[in-house]
């Protein structure tokens, strides 16, 4: 499990939709200490006796969690059958990391809560087989929206969040030909719309809108299967 901002009851409900229970969770990885990512971690870990993993900097912010273990954010480590590569990212937290998961010659990247694109992000996300990517806001909607000025500046800043155009810029710098799934996530309910995300991303990478997944905050996302033998652009442009 990566992050958890939900109550125990809500988490159980969401896992049940995926055919899982709390005892199935091997570990909870925490990307950073913001409440939407860590708010539910301590109680869920305690309830089901789950180890929690975070960078040393994030760990210092959540050190009340008894089962906390820290990883070196410059080193890959093994957990639950995955090789996990932490990716340090520019975001306004203590030592925020996103993750690359590798198994069976497949590579899955998770990249949310980043204010700007770094060469390091481009290097490590290259040639993913699946990618979960933040499309947090549409610039016009944010500028004309209800957020106070200080919050607008924070979100748009280099340590805030990716907007739709930045997400597209990142995709254009990556090789997306191997992608079996592109999941667009951390989409603001106030400053973005699923339609805008689908329109702009599908146009930019020339794929069908229906091929993309946008995570709905209520519905979440069902399982996606990655296959090892598809190594061409046949899924993206199918
Ligand atoms: Zn967040
Ligand atoms: Zn955050």
Explain what the structure shows.
With 238 residues, this protein is an alpha/beta fold. The chain contains nine helices and ten strands. It has two domains: 1-74, no CATH class; 104-238, Rossmann fold (3-Layer(aba) Sandwich). The chain has a seven-stranded mixed sheet with strand order 4-5-6-7-8-9-10. Strands 1-2-3 form a three-stranded parallel sheet. 35% of the residues are buried. The mean pLDDT is 96. Bound molecules: zinc ion (2 copies). Residues 34, 36-37, 113, 186 line the site of one zinc ion.
List keywords for this structure.
238 residues; alpha/beta; Rossmann fold; 2 domains; 7-stranded mixed β-sheet; 19% strand; binds zinc ion
Write the layout of secondary structure elements.
Elements: H1 8-17, E1 28-29, H2 35-38, H3 41-48, E2 52-55, H4 56-61, E3 68-71, E4 77-79, E5 82-88, E6 97-103, E7 106-111, H5 119-125, E8 130-134, H6 139-143, H7 149-156, H8 164-173, E9 181-185, H9 194-205, E10 213-214
Parallel strand pairs: 1-2, 2-3, 7-8, 8-9, 9-10
Antiparallel strand pairs: 4-5, 5-6, 6-7
């Amino acid at each position: 499990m990566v992050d958890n901002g939900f109550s125990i009851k809500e988490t159980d409900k969401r896992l049940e939709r995926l055919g899982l229970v709390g005892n199935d969770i091997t570990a909870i990885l925490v990307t950073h200490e913001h409440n939407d990512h860590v708010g539910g971690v301590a109680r869920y870990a305690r309830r089901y006796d789950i180890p929690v993993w975070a960078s040393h900097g994030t760990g210092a912010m959540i050190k009340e969690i008894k089962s906390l273990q820290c990883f070196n954010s410059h080193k890959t480590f093994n957990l639950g059958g995955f090789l996990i590569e932490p990716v340090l990212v520019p975001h306004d937290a203590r030592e925020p990391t996103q993750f690359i998961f590798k198994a069976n010659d497949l590579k899955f990247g998770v990249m949310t809560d980043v204010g700007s694109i770094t060469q390091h992000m481009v290097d490590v996300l290259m040639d993913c087989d699946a990618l979960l990517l933040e499309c947090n806001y549409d610039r016009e909607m944010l500028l004309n929206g209800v957020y106070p000025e200080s919050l607008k500046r924070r979100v748009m800043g280099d340590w805030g969040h990716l907007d739709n155009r930045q997400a597209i810029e990142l995709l254009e710098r990556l090789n997306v030909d191997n992608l079996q799934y592109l999941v667009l996530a951390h989409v603001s309910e106030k400053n973005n719309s699923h339609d805008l995300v689908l329109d702009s991303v599908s146009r930019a990478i020339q794929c069908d809108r229906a091929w993309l997944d946008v995570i709905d905050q209520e519905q979440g996302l069902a399982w996606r299967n990655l296959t090892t033998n598809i190594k061409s652009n046949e899924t993206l442009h199918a």
